Amino acid sequence: MTVFRRTPSAVAAVSTALGLSLACAAPSTAAAEEITVFAAASLTNALTEIEQAFEAESGHDLAISFAGSSALARQIQQGAPADIFISANAEWMDTLEEEGLLEPDTRFDLLNNSIVLVAHGAEAAPVEIGPDLDLVGLLDGGRLAMALVDAVPAGIYGKASLESLGLWSGVEDQVAQSDNVRTALTLVSTGEAPYGIVYATDAVADDNVTVVGTFPADSHPPIVYPAADLATRDIPAESEFLDYLRGPDARAAFEGQGFVVVGGN
């Protein structure tokens, strides 16, 4: 019978090889993180595209929750374990910052958008949006779909514009409010409401609606999407994702959905 003896040098060689193997394997395992992102519903298409590209490039996993900015901000206030917040409204981000819920010096303005009047179907005639628009006549007894006008950014911008143009009081009782802008879009897309006010980027995402007019930019506050790292935990992957959002691949995805990238050419 042959007996194999472990010599000190052999044991040392095996230990060294094993140590090197583990050292090489460890970084890839340790580096992979799951990042929870809370994002405005109007970012659904663009961020879904960005999610796939970022995960493939970085090895990290993104878990993105889409909803109205107001609902997401309130969840963050209540302790929801999110890592990144991208809001469709600066005021909600201001609130979180004032409450110390953002990591210092991580907030930045990411995107701009515009609001439009959309109609059900592909044959709707364009209108000129201004103080002389007969919006009541246009609705003809139907509903005007909007996101919550006192809470959700798209609804806040839409109401501000209608008030600025002197149109709000005439249609206030005909507004069908929904918890986020994508739901408002769906009401028009399915024909439950003949018209609605949504972001220009939402209209691009649905073939069953037609943009019939764009609200003047000076009739509402600037539409800005700020992004920030939340003060929940601190991992390198959060910074990696925020940097990616400002990179060329993310810019292409945002612009492909009709967003204007802040600082872009």
UniProtKB/TrEMBL annotation:
CDD domains, sorted: PBP2_EcModA
Protein's GO biological process: molybdate ion transport
Family designation: Belongs to the bacterial solute-binding protein ModA family.
Binding site for molybdate: S42, S69, A154, V181, Y199
Coiled coil: none
Main location: membrane
Task of the protein: Involved in the transport of molybdenum into the cell. Part of the binding-protein-dependent transport system ModABCD.
SUPFAM superfamilies, A to Z: Periplasmic binding protein-like II (SSF53850)
UniProt entry keywords in alphabetical sequence: Cell membrane, Membrane, Metal-binding, Molybdenum, Signal, Transport, Tungsten
One cellular-component annotation, GO: outer membrane-bounded periplasmic space
Residues spanning the signal sequence: 1-25
Cell compartments where the protein resides: Cell membrane
Name listed for the protein in its UniProt record: Molybdate-binding protein ModA
UniProt organism field: Celeribacter indicus
Lineage start: Bacteria, Pseudomonadati, Pseudomonadota, Alphaproteobacteria, Rhodobacterales
GO MF: metal ion binding; molybdate ion binding
Self-association and partners: The complex is composed of two ATP-binding proteins (ModC), two transmembrane proteins (ModB) and a solute-binding protein (ModA).
